[in-house]
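#structure-requests
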Amino acid sequence: MSGRLLRQRTVAELMSRRNGIVPAEAFAVAAPIVESVRVRGEVALREYAERFGDVPPGGPLFLDRGVLDRALADLPPQDRARLERVAERIRTFAEAQKRALGTVTVTVPGGTAGHWIAPLERAGCYAPGGRYPLPSSVLMTALTAKTAGVKQVWVASPKPRPITLAAAAVARVEGVLAAGGAHAIAAMAFGAGPVPACDVIVGPGNRYVAAAKQLVGGRVAIDMLAGPSELVVFADRTANPAAIAADLLAQAEHDTDAMPILVALDPALPDRVEAELARQLATLPTAAVAREALGNGGVVVVTSVEEGIAACDALAPEHIELFLDGADQVAPRLAHYGALFIGGASAEVLGDYGAGPNHVLPTGGTARSKGGLSVYTFLRVRTWLRIADGAAARPLLEDAAWFGRVEGLEAHARSAERRLD
């Protein structure tokens, strides 16, 4: 078993192999950078951007809409058409989500109460630009923010490629900050140059990005602290081993810390998947990264659907794929995951690349308490109260006065009782 690409493990072993999303070392590096940008603004931002190679000395740090629109215009027509087609799917899904959350009005003694929905005003969206630049993340974050109604949206991405700038143009953002890491997060949190102090910062990034997001999280809203990518494939004897291997490798090539996992109902399935992994790795350009990531994951063999569901829920992974004969019946029974892909044709990569639902998702087991990025990330629910009939409101006022005295807050009680006159 020691020579296998995907070793058999228990759920407890897999959970113990997860590292903390933000290690102490990342905080030690990010904290002084964040503080420097907070205090010195654009000057510090440029210093770090040039030091870390985001831009050449004196190079453009802030790219406006004119630059973005030119990048879009320069794309080959077929590439632009695909980019805009994917963007439209993401926008359509976000618009449907937004329609699902509406205003509310309810009757209370003497009047009405309710809520209105309002978008945030300014959003900062981070898009990685390292080993694998992710223009898809520009669409997932910035386009969703714009669909929510956010007025000002900025994207931060180090050394942005033309396709990244084109994606920002499609999303109709205000500009791109050509920088990454903790200094970019700090710039979006506190403002620097034309980049405003944002109300929310979203998007995936490395450990230093995550550390910076946590550091500024008391000042601005953040979506989540994104850790290494995760995929659990829950499969039975009807599953296609080649498709499972392909999906596990697609997740594994993200990063050497990624966690690909197979939960198998058929004890013979792991061997078939193992053979396919070896065969597909032989021609995979990202094999070195994927092979190392496979070592983080493993195989859990279960004896029943119920045991498999329990394993998936305990792991609470970023993604779950169901390669099961009864996938539609199992799907509603799962409780904890970032995104669910029902049936072998529903590849996780279709979620990555614009079927509609967002691909910015909780990792490290945080799916137990958080959902993925969505249009709701950029919306506020604000409540209101209107009392029109003081006499009819007497039960409400008397209860409020009682509660004030129960809690020792006499001024609260008197404020309510003044309305009883």
